[in-house]
Amino acid sequence: MQKKLYFLIFSLCILSSLSAQESKYKTLTTVSSGEELNLFMSYYYTYPNLELVPKALSYIQIQKINANKEMERHIVPFFAQIFKTNDDKIPKWFEDLTDLSDDDQYIFAHALFLSGGSNAKKEIQKFLDSTDNEELKQVFTKLTSARQPIDLRTIPLTKPVYLDMIWSSFFATGDVSYLEKLILATELNKKSVDQILIYSAARWSLKAVAKDHKKVFDFCVSKKGKYSKDINTFLEDFET
Predict the structure, then answer these.
(1) Confidence (pLDDT) at 19
(2) CA 146, CA 167: separation in Å to the nearest integer?
(3) Which run of H or E residues covers position 212?
(4) Is the pLDDT of residue 203 over 70?
(5) How buried is 218 (Cβ within 10 angstroms: 0-12 exposed, 13-18 middle, 19+ buried)?
(6) Interval 152-171: pLDDT, tens
(7) DSSP state of 145
(8) Radius of gyration over alpha carbons of the chain, in Å?
(9) Would you state the pLDDT for residue 140?
(10) Which of 57, 15, 6, 42 minimizes the C-alpha distance to 167?
């Protein structure tokens, strides 16, 4: 089930037209299937429906999606951005989430930490106070310290996992500075294995996502001729 959900949410395959996908998301009243979670986590930025947030959190918990550690790179940054702009709603959202597993607490705590809000930190403290898991206590203690969360728009892209995190942040916010970061990663002059992987994934994902997301396509078109020769050549593939 978890593998199926992973495919639904993050394969970026083209299932239908852009207008149909966005329209379908905007009609959602619940998140009770893998398809609905896919729509929510792909098109939230087009219409930030806050009523769906607790429903998505609940579905993730019920389906034990956080047990798949591969999901961390998507769930953490996506919900971190939602928590960041809705810190006042965090107490209610988490009050309604009962019997969170260790996996749930671990993933949600990192999303709360990355959001950087005051209520988010209080929620992590609640996790710390309630858990008997010594490993989790160590994690939560670090997250409630004075450490500052990273900003994915400014940190160097040294790991391929950051690309997934950047995309998830964009899907939550629609902030084009994340797209700018991805475009810059398409520069051809790469040396290390990680750099080559990042370059290849950035180019592939921009083309794939642009087919379903008009905002991505339009941004890439608007940036033609504004970078190095190598990047400009890549952007020429985005035909108007």
Answers:
(1) 63
(2) 27
(3) none
(4) yes
(5) middle
(6) 999 888 888 999 999 999 99
(7) S
(8) 18
(9) 97
(10) 42
